[in-house]
Inverse folding.
């Protein structure tokens, strides 16, 4: 197992290099001139423009710009944005905000999704089962930005139950954005749990557990659930990485000053260093949580061995 | 009950007129149609039948582990030591499963839970029924593994089902079933998934354990060889009903039902070497459309459809399971006396 993890960690290096180069190239390929955009209506002198270009290596060819960027990166320098702020400072400031949002979302996803899925799976065909099926279909078919605005309008503005914007109310500010961010995954978790539980209830080992004279709560709660949770836990784990990256839309709607919002703003301003730095960080989280899931998978299912 | 029991004591298990149906969207499937049999202490009774003859369903109903819906017990009694399990509460039934009756299944790999160690799964019996501590239960599990001849039992108790061979897994199942010294063990095709040498070892193990404990053994099988070797009495099932019952020696030597006759004739023997095998023509009936009269009549070489004596037309009149020959034997054929003599 240790060797497997080490090998997987080494493999993240080429993936990170490839991903960051692709993102770098995409920002490079964006139409428009970032320096002129920065200047706006106030024309900068040719000399100042040239100096800025030199400072941000904008005159170099793409590959050289990228190498210079990576060269700085390995020394811990994430570069600066156009206002001269270190990108690393932005990341350190905003990472906790995005992490809190993702954590809130994962909690909603796991608790609501699992409970709904288990209840529906045990009583297939019941009223509650149909309710879960219909509501999850509804959630899956509504785009997140629509759901986000509707939730903001209804629960934030009209009913006044939650703050509509910002993070001024501490953890409470994260409830509504967390629910919106979790909505899609929550529906998947509910469905996956239901299907997995229903499938496992038909397995021979469940019949054995009943033949052993075990209580129904043990037959379902221990024997069946332990097996049913394997795909669900895998999904939730892998989803943590996706939730952090997927926060861009939600953070924009609820005006939450996290990494997603920072990326959004940086794309608009064509600030390559910011975009590449943060998105590469998202890629890293994604890889990291996937590795964590693979390790967890082997712990949950003794049939899986990696060495 | 027509068959006279070998001993007059209360049987461990008495099944009386058990009827099970499956209610499916396509209609009702009559899986078990009023079967009766009994098993005494220390006795081995084999239920013999083809796939789809209702033999597995009948013992699932006895065990109370029928998938319901779609399966429903619509009639009959299942007496365990004289007490009807079908009218007992769920709690009472649960208390019988394990200490009273226990069961092993055909496919030990899928029947064991893949995510728990075998030691844990065996220990669970002691924890659930006797409230044993984790440690006591684990010790008892190791002893049981040793008793079913699993080498290095202490170490192997911590292994998972997929880490055992097929034969060893079935030994684990047996250890688990015997944990609480049940009065009756139901073995549903315990050796079908195993290769021949392992089959013999497992059957021998079951026989040895039965001799030690004096439990009754109800063996579900389609393997005539296994029945001949280990069973005392045999219950032959066809289309969800019992067609013949008696001691194995008598039934095998001189069948009193044409279906049993066909089964015996289909066994290849040394004398029949070089000749063609003799299968029973036709296929077992669809249990949602069981033939009228005698359910075997469309395949029966001895059927009488024209000029039959009153009440003995194989297509119109349902034959009852009635005594024939020596006491304890019964056959559900209108012409059982003639078949027996043939």
């Amino acid at each position: 197992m240790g060797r497997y993890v080490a090998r997987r960690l080494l493999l993240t290096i080429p993936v990170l290099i490839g991903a960051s180069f692709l993102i770098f190239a995409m920002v490079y390929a964006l139409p428009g001139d970032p320096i002129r955009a920065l200047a706006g209506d106030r024309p900068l002198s040719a000399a100042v423009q040239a100096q800025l270009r030199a400072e941000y290596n904008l005159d170099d060819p793409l590959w050289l710009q990228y190498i210079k960027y990576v060269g700085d990166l390995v020394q811990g320098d994430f570069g600066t944005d156009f206002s001269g702020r270190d990108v690393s400072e932005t990341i350190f400031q905003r990472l906790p905000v995005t992490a809190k949002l993702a954590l809130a979302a994962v909690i909603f996803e796991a608790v609501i999704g699992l409970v709904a899925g288990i209840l529906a799976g045990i009583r297939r065909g019941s009223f509650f089962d149909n309710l879960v099926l219909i509501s999850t279909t509804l959630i899956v078919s509504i785009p997140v930005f629509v759901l986000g605005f509707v939730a903001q309008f209804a629960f934030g503005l009209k009913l006044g139950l939650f703050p509509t914007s910002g993070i001024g109310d501490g953890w409470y500010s994260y409830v509504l954005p967390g629910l919106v961010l979790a909505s899609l995954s929550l529906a998947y978790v509910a469905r996956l749990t239901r299907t997995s539980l229903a499938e496992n209830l038909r397995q021979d080992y469940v019949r054995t557990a009943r033949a052993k004279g075990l209580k129904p709560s043990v037959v379902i709660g221990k024997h069946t659930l332990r097996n049913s949770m394997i795909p669900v836990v895998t999904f939730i784990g892998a989803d943590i990485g996706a939730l952090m990256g997927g926060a861009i839309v939600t953070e924009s709607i609820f005006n939450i000053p996290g990494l997603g919002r920072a990326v959004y703003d940086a794309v608009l301003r064509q600030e390559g260093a910011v975009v590449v730095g943060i998105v590469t960080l998202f890629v890293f989280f994604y890889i990291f949580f996937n590795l964590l899931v693979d390790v967890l998978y082997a712990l949950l299912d003794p049939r899986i061995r990696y060495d | 009950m027509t068959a006279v029991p070998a001993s007059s004591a209360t049987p461990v298990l008495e099944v009386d007129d058990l009827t099970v149906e499956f209610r499916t969207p396509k209609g009702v499937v009559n899986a078990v149609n009023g079967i009766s049999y009994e098993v005494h202490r220390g006795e081995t009774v084999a239920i013999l039948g083809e796939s789809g003859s209702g033999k597995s369903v009948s013992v699932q109903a006895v065990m109370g582990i029928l998938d319901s819906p779609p399966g429903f017990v619509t009639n009959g009694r299942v007496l365990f030591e004289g007490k009807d399990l079908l009218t007992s509460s769920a709690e009472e039934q649960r208390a019988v499963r394990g200490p009273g009756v226990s069961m092993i299944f055909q496919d030990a790999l899928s029947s064991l839970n893949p995510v728990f160690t075998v030691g844990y799964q065996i220990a669970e019996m002691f924890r659930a029924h006797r409230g044993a501590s984790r440690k006591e239960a684990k010790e008892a599990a190791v002893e049981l593994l040793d008793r079913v001849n699993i080498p290095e039992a202490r170490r192997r108790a911590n292994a998972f089902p997929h880490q055992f061979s097929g034969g060893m897994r079935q030994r684990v199942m047996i250890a688990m079933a015997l944990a609480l010294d049940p009065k009756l063990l139901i073995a549903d095709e315990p050796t079908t998934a195993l290769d021949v040498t392992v089959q013999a070892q497992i059957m021998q193990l079951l026989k040895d354990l039965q001799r030690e404990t004096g439990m009754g053994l109800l063996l579900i099988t389609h393997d005539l060889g296994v029945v001949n070797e280990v069973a005392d009495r045999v219950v032959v099932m066809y289309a969800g009903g019992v067609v013949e019952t008696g001691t194995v020696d008598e039934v095998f030597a001189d069948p009193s039902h044409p279906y049993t006759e066909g089964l015996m004739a289909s066994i290849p023997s040394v004398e029949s070497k070089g000749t063609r095998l003799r299968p029973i023509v036709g296929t077992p009936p669809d249990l949602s459309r069981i033939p009228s009269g005698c359910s075997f009549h469309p395949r029966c070489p001895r059927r009488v459809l024209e000029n039959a004596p009153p009440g003995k037309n194989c297509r119109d009149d349902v034959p009852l399971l009635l005594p024939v020959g020596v006491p304890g034997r019964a056959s559900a054929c209108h012409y059982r006396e003639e078949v027996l003599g043939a």
Remarks:
- The longest strand of chain B covers residues 27-39.
- Chain B is about 30% helix and 20% strand.
- The two ends of chain B are 26 Å apart (CA to CA).
